[in-house]
């Protein structure tokens, strides 16, 4: 017990010493410079997020044959990676129902195809299996098939909180992207505000 206690004391002393040593060497100007750089970086990454959602090369703006959706994705997907985009419930379920009687040789359609010819072929040794054996549920298919680009949700198409894969007319996903952008920026603004406040407090202590 005594040993534990002295460890704690030792530990907090080191932390406090390191802390004051770190800040005594920093001039306020430099702190503000770092702050500005951080702020522009976070704004930049927000803008990128929106672009990725809206202007992906393989993003479908109109209904079309499935083949075009995954053709050549293999070679370019790294540049256009999206992650955990909330997909509308109906879109995932419909997609699953339309495919569930098919067969497929692959669980992850992003990678591993044989592209030696113009179209994608199953890699040597990959056996075709029943769709439902590869993807037992709609959720497993929607999330795994494009390596977690999409996230299964309970949001319906009219919720404004999820992306629609198939739609007619104006792109409804624009509003959804804007919602998540604003939502995200509000969180980041809050974080930035508290960051600024702690900096002000710190600077006043120097
Ligand atoms: C890719 O497909 C071609 C035929 O189109 C075949 O000759 C080759 O062995 C395949 N390669 C792999 C790695 O599956």
UniProtKB/TrEMBL annotation:
One of its GO terms (cellular component) is external side of plasma membrane. This is Folate receptor-like domain-containing protein. The chain crosses the membrane at residues 29-47. Residues 70-164 form the Folate receptor-like domain. PANTHER family: FOLATE RECEPTOR, FOLATE RECEPTOR 1-RELATED. It comes from Hemibagrus guttatus. GO terms for molecular function: signaling receptor activity. It comes from the Eukaryota. The keyword Nucleotide-binding does not apply. Belongs to the folate receptor family. Keywords: Disulfide bond, Membrane, Signal, Transmembrane, Transmembrane helix. It holds the Pfam family Folate_rec.
């Amino acid at each position: 017990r005594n040993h534990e206690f002295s460890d704690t004391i030792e530990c907090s002393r080191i932390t406090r010493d390191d802390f004051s040593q770190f800040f005594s060497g920093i001039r306020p100007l430099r702190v503000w410079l770092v702050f500005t750089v951080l702020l522009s970086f976070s704004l930049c990454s927000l803008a990128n997020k929106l672009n990725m959602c809206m202007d992906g090369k393989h993003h479908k703006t109109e209904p079309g044959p499935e083949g075009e959706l995954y053709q050549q994705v293999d070679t370019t997907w790294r540049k256009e990676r999206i992650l955990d985009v909330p997909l509308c419930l109906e879109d995932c379920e419909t997609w699953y129902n339309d495919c569930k009687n098919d067969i497929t040789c692959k669980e992850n359609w992003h990678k591993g195809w044989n592209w030696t010819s113009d179209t994608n072929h199953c890699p040597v040794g990959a056996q075709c299996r029943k769709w439902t054996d590869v993807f037992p549920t709609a959720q497993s298919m929607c999330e795994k098939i494009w390596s977690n680009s999409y996230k299964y949700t309970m949001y319906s198409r009219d919720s404004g909180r999820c992306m629609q894969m198939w739609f007619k007319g104006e792109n409804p996903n624009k509003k959804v992207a804007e919602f998540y952008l604003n939502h995200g920026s509000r969180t980041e603004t809050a974080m930035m505000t508290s960051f600024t406040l702690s900096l002000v407090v710190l600077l006043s202590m120097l």
